Amino acid sequence: MPDETNIEKPNELKYERSDNFISTYANNAYFESSAWDLKIVFGQLDQPVGRPPLIRQNIAITIPWSQAKLALYYLRLNVEANELQNGKILIREDLLPAEPKPPTTEQENNPLAKQMYDLIRKLREDFIRSL
Questions:
Q1: What Rg value do the Cα atoms of the chain yield, rounded?
Q2: pTM attached to this predicted model
Q3: Which residues, at least 6 apart from 65, have a Cβ–Cβ distance to it below 8 Å?
Q4: Total count of domains within the chain
Q5: Whether 108 and 127 share a structural domain
Q6: Are 67 and 121 in a shared domain?
Q7: Which domain holds residue 107?
Q8: Is 1 a member of any domain?
Q9: Who has the most CB within 10 Å: 42, 56, 95, 118?
Q10: Where are the beta strands (DSSP E) in the chain?
C-alpha cells in the first residue's frame, strides 16, 4: 500500500507568513461596520501612574461580512472546545455586556429598530446564560 502522508492533495491550502507578519497582544477590540465589511481595531489597556487609563489601539483588521460570519463560527468552536478541555472561562460581572437601552418611542415605530433591540437583548441573555 502506498504511503499517503507525503501526497499533496490538490485543494489543500498551504500557509506561509509574509515578511511583514505581525503578532501582537490585545485585550480590547473595537468594532466599526459598514455595508461592505467589518473593521476590528485591537488595542491594549494602558494604566499609567498618575494619568487616567486608556486603550492604546495598535492594529486594525478589516474583513468582508462573509469572513466575519465564518470567524464567528470558528471563534465559538475554539472557545467551546477550550471550555470542554479546561472548564468555563470566567467573566467578571463588571465586564459583562451592558443591558441594551429600551427603544425610544420613535424607535418603537420602526420595525428594524425593534428587531435590533430584541436581537441584542436575546444575544446578551444567551451569553450570560452560557457563563
A1: 21
A2: 0.80
A3: 36, 37, 38
A4: 2
A5: yes
A6: no
A7: 91-131
A8: no
A9: 42
A10: 28-33, 37-46, 54-64
Taking the chain (131 residues) in runs of 10, the rounded mean pLDDT of each run is 61 92 96 98 96 96 98 98 97 95 91 94 96 92
The partner residues of 46 in beta bridges, in order of sequence, read 54
Answer whether residue 4 is part of any domain: no
Instruction: Judge if 63 and 102 occupy the same domain.
Output: no
Cα torsion angle, 53, 131, 114, 74, sign: positive
In the chain, DSSP finds a helix count (H) and a strand count (E) of 3, 3
Q: What is the pLDDT of residue 54?
A: 97
DSSP, collapsed to helix, strand or coil, labels residue 93 as: helix
CB 26 within 8 A of CB 44: yes
Tell me if 113 sits within 8 A of 103, measured CB to CB.
yes
Is residue 3 situated within a structural domain?
no
